[in-house]
Amino acid sequence: MSEPITQEAGEDARWTSTVAVHYDAKKPLSRYIRWYLLLSLAVSAVWAATNGILMPNQIQLLEFGSFFHGADAGIDLQALTELGRAVASGEVTPDADQTRQLALLSDFEAARANGLALVTTTSAIIVMVLQPVIGVLSDRTRSRLGRRAPWILYAGLIGAVLLVAVRYAPSLVVLVVLWSATELALNVAGNPLQATVADRVPRDRRGRVTSWTSMGAIIGGIIGGIGAGALFGLVGLDFYLILGLLVAIATILFVTRNRDESSVEVEREPFAWKPFLLGYASALKARNYRWLWISRALFFFGYSTSTVLNLYMLQSYVRPALSAAEASAMVPILGLAGIPFTLIAVAISGRLSDRLGRRKPFIIVASVLMAVSMAIPLISPTLPALFAQVVLTGLAFGIYLPVDNAMFIDVLPDPARAGRDLGLAIVAMNLGQALAPALAAVVVSVTGGYQAVWGAALVLVALATLTVAPIRERKPARA
């Protein structure tokens, strides 16, 4: 039994039929999913490897020399951390030199957290501000390659080259500049990529498509995290070069294997700055879109707050403490623990939400599960507790990702401006990711530890659950 065409669906179909290929047949849709999955995998590998392993280690290496030099240059941070715990518990009375070294350790802890916050927050803010602009420009692009392909191709290749440059950043300031440019380039490619789902995929198949593309993101996270962690001792920061090559190959394959129709002949409204600026966040006027946007921002704010300092938590919060090498190897193993649950949930949630015609209940369940997971390491700062937390988080993310992506496409106020409004949706995620490192660094600096970081993350994700509640979702009618 077919679903009647609503006014929104009719407008969507009329628009996409004039500017893009619409994948109604199985073969082109399968091909599209396959190469979208590969590109999603490549970009997700970059985020997982960089945020989890490469960037924290790179900043730690840059900051270490500022605090531990001369006779302290060969100091064992793992042993010094355990000494600090023994001193705090009253088991050991430090001598003058140990007291001095413990003070250096405290300053180093704050400096590396602040350094990581500076790099990640600066880049996320830049992306957040410019993301909708790129969406608008891709909506207005007229070329033989179509509207989205030029942005995906050129930005993806630029991002690949910049990844190589990031590897050789000689200072924190240069690293901030290079990583901001890299993250912007990859997001410039990612926004039009996501808009191709709205352009090309029928509404009743979007949950299925976003399930597959979310699976690509998950697999990419596995490859990036495990690869960087396992190979860090062998290739170190040169893993950036591997990532750059992967992104370049995946970008070229997606664009060449999923050619869009030329948009040269498509009419477009004359450009004017005032309506452009006024329309920047106009989608937030729509009730459902606005609440979903707020919920996503809080969800990723909470999640990112809990994960941004993972490498440092394993060295300084978990008992017993791990060395930098042990922590680098453990981060991807932790991530891997939740993957089976994520994959199962991703495979089911998108399709089930299509079948039921409901997205909201899935997002609520995912947010509740995520909030509950944050309480586990808050109560028990041990490695087994972190594994339990990761498993529950993996399940929550598997439910959340495909349904949230599909729901944003469903609630678009104007399908003709999908690039702009989906760019604004990505801003919600970027906002959470931008604020999280700063919040985590402030918590560590103020409290002198990591426990309160989990408390803050729990509260934020709980708020995400509350803010999705006002969304009014109507089950589609069936003929």
From TrEMBL:
Topology class, membrane: Multi-pass membrane protein
Keywords: Membrane, Transmembrane, Transmembrane helix
KW Transmembrane helix (keyword) present: yes
Domain of life according to the entry: Bacteria
Keyword Transmembrane assigned: yes
Domain (Major facilitator superfamily (MFS) profile) ranges: 58-475
Localisation: Cell membrane
Residue ranges crossing the lipid bilayer per the database entry: 35-54, 115-137, 149-166, 172-190, 211-233, 239-256, 297-317, 329-350, 362-380, 386-403, 424-446, 452-471
Location (main, coarse): membrane
PANTHER family: MAJOR FACILITATOR SUPERFAMILY (MFS) PROFILE DOMAIN-CONTAINING PROTEIN (PTHR23528:SF1), PTHR23528
UniProt name for this protein: MFS transporter
